[in-house]
Every structure is written in C-alpha cells, then in structure tokens.
Design brief:
The protein is mostly helical. About 50% of the residues lie in helices and about 10% in strands. It contains 16 helices and 8 strands. Helix 8 crosses helix 12. The N and C termini lie far apart (about 95 Å).
Length: about 425
C-alpha cells in the first residue's frame, strides 16, 4: 500500500488568444502523476518569461512584482497541501485546487449553511418551526448588510465577537416606527436557532471551532398564564347570542378540559374518538408539534361540548368535530371574551392548555407524571414549569400535613393517658 504521495507545483504559460506576444500564466498541481491546472489571471510578455525557471525574466519593477506574486501563490499551494494532510483528508490535485480556490468544505459560507439547513430540514421540522428559521435568516442577512457591509461571510470567519455583535443588533433592532421589535427571550430564540445551524456545520465538518462555546443563552423565566378555577367558572357561565364568540368560547373550554393545543383541536376528527381501557370515551391522537402519541380521557364537560356541535359536524363537508377559526382570529375573539368575562389576562388559545395542566389537573391532585403524559410532553421537566405556579395545591397539601400532625399528637396524648 502506498503511503506517500508525490506532489509538485510548477508554473507554465500559454499563448494568449487575443495578443500573440502575450502569455497567460497557469499553475499545474501534480499528485501521483495526476494533474490539475489553475489560471492565475496574470499575463506576461513572451520576451519577459524564462521557461527554464518558470519565472519572469529581468529586474524591472513589473517583473519583480510578478515574481513576488508567483512566490506567494506557490507558498499558498504548499500550505493547501499541508492543511489537507493535517486534516487527514485524501490529497489529490483537484482537492488542492478546490482548497486554493475556496471551493471545498473549508470555505463554506454562512448562506450555504443556511440553504443546506433549510433544504434538509423541510421534512424534519414542522412548517411553523421552519418559518421561524426563515425569520432568523432575515435578521442575519440584515445584520450582514447593515453592520458588516457584506452579503455573505465565510464560516471560518465566525467567532465569539460575531455572536455578541449579532446579539446587540437584535436587541436594538427597531421597526419603521422606531419601536423595539424583540424582547430578551425573542433575541435568545433567534440565537438558539442560529446555534443549531452552527452545530450542524460542526457535524458536517464545515467548521473546526464553535463560536457558541463561550456564549450562554439566558432566557427570562416567567409564569405561564392560566385561568383560575373562579375565572374558568365565570367563562363557563357566559353565553353568547353571537355564534362566532360562542363557538370560540366552547372550543377554548374544550381545550381547558382536554389539554389539546390549537392545531390538535382544529384537526380533531371522529376517528380519534375511541373507547379506552375503562370503556369510556378517549381521544387517541398525535401532537402536531412533536408527533408524540397522546391519549386523553374525555371529561364530561368536554363531552358536552362535542355533543353540542355533533349535528354541525355531521352536516359539514369537513371532518373536524369543532368549528374553529384561524389561530389569529381565534386569539382576537378571545380578547373580546376575556373583556366580557372580566378576565384581566392576555387570553390566547394556548392559555387553555396551561389551564388544563394547572387548574384542572395539578390543583386537583393529579400526579405530575400523569399530567405530563396527557400533555404529550417528552420531558417531565417541561411539565414542572406548570407545577411551580399552583399555589392553591401547595396550600392544600400543607393543610393536610398540619391535620396529620394534629392527629398524631392527639393519638400520642391518648396513648399516654391510658398508661
């Protein structure tokens, strides 16, 4: 087995097509007898070229400049050969040429990485998630144009300073009305998506160092909005003659008692309603967001809502069981409903899912492991976010603990009296 490659670089000339007395200069790379040629984009007069030395002839300033340039390019080609050896890559004449011209993986650009990510993630990421990546791409392009005055950048140029500068650009970005566009968590989400693209480049060996190694994403923690038991009851007791608001209210309540997200409620069909292990009605579905299987027993209040719209779904060409508008319109209608019910919270459809986890489940003693399964969470830590805000459950548990302490004390006193 051959372990050493033969390698050489020589300069040569070809006659110019346009000017007979002018020569075009080329570099020829030879590895194990196989050649590859590169045009150096330089010309020299035929009389000024020394074919025996493959350099310019004479000591004029023009020839000295030319020979210095050729020496530099010769050194660059030797360095390309050295880099490939150090990276344990296959050394060929074409590989050295690609490295020299910046056409190999070592010279990939940020736009090439983004394009590769978006094309390959179409079948992996959900449409909504991919849209967020497109938004991050737009911010990156604006940052390159406005701050760095360029349309693209080599991946090997990305460093910690680039990340910091991009973060500050996002924090200070304003719309046409001079309003700040992003909160801290909004900035962190864009950086998080950018970090995932950089991690892909590392795995593809397009980058040697990760500029995010010294950077820490810092999200602000906040309590998830949910309806208390009193607010939920107030909503249930509110009825509308306006069919539009009545439907949105009912769909929201259905989510409060099933924990299904907006898209899962919207796409719910008869095929997903089945008899469970207890012979009661259950919803068997998969979360649109994570593709995680979810099995949810249908509570009586949720069953009543399905029964209310049974005739509508039968007479409709659509298979959906509940009449749900677009997410944007639904959230707009929920603002009206919250105002009518005296609920001073930013009511969105996702609040229903939080209400299911906290007010309906955890507050009534359902174990967090069960709640996690019902929500279709892949990690228990995700569900624990809801557990931190259930103060009524904590109070109830402490009261039960105090009762047990008193009972033990009374039993101990009674035992001492009998002795």
């Amino acid at each position: 087995m051959q372990t050493n490659n033969t390698f050489s670089v020589v300069f040569f000339t070809r006659k110019s097509r346009n000017k007979q007395q002018e020569l075009s200069i080329y570099a020829r790379i030879t590895v194990n007898g196989k050649r590859s040629e590169i045009s150096l984009k330089r010309q020299v007069q035929q009389k000024d070229w020394d074919s025996s030395k493959n350099r310019g002839r004479g000591s004029s300033y023009t020839i000295q400049t030319l020979n210095k340039y050729l020496d530099q390019e010769y050194a660059r080609l030797l360095d390309c050969h050295k880099q490939l050896l150090e990276e344990s890559k296959i050394v060929t004449a074409n590989a050295i040429k690609s490295r020299f011209l910046g056409e190999d993986d070592n010279h990939k650009t940020l736009s090439e990485l983004i394009d590769y990510h978006n094309v390959n993630m179409v079948t992996v990421l959900k449409h909504g998630t991919l849209k967020n990546y497109y938004t991050t791409e737009k911010y990156l392009n604006k940052f390159l144009n406005h701050k760095l005055k360029t349309k693209d950048i080599y991946l090997k140029q990305l460093n910690y300073g680039f990340i910091i500068d991009f973060e500050q650009y996002l924090r200070n970005y304003r719309n046409t009305k001079k309003n700040l566009m992003l909160t801290n968590n909004g900035v962190m989400k864009h950086l998080e998506r950018f970090k995932k693209m950089i991690n892909l480049a590392i795995k593809l060996e397009w980058m040697q160092k990760n500029p995010f190694n010294q950077f820490q994403l810092k999200f602000d923690k906040y309590d998830r909005a949910y309806l208390t038991e009193r607010e939920l009851e107030r909503l249930e007791n509110t009825h509308y003659n306006n069919e539009r608001l009545e439907r949105v209210k009912d769909c929201f309540l259905f989510s409060c008692y099933t924990g299904l997200s907006y898209v899962d409620v919207k796409e719910l069909t008869t095929k997903q309603i089945t008899r469970g292990i207890d012979n009661n009605h259950w919803i068997f579905t998969k979360r649109e967001k994570t593709n995680e299987s979810v099995k949810v027993p249908i509570l009586p209040k949720a069953m009543d809502i399905l029964a209310k719209y049974r005739d509508i779904s039968k007479n409709s060409d659509c298979e959906a069981l509940l009449p749900l508008s677009s997410n944007q319109k639904t959230n707009s209608y929920l603002k009206e409903i919250a105002k009518d019910c005296g609920i001073h919270k930013n009511l969105t459809f996702h609040v229903a899912r939080h209400t299911f986890a906290t007010t309906v489940m955890l507050s009534n003693g359902v174990p967090i492991e069960t709640v996690s399964k019902l929500l279709g969470h892949t990690k228990l830590s995700t569900t624990q976010i809801y557990a931190r805000v259930v103060e009524t459950k904590i109070s109830e548990d402490i009261q039960n603990l105090l009762i047990r302490f008193r009972t033990k004390k009374q039993q101990s006193q009674a035992l001492n009296q009998t002795k």
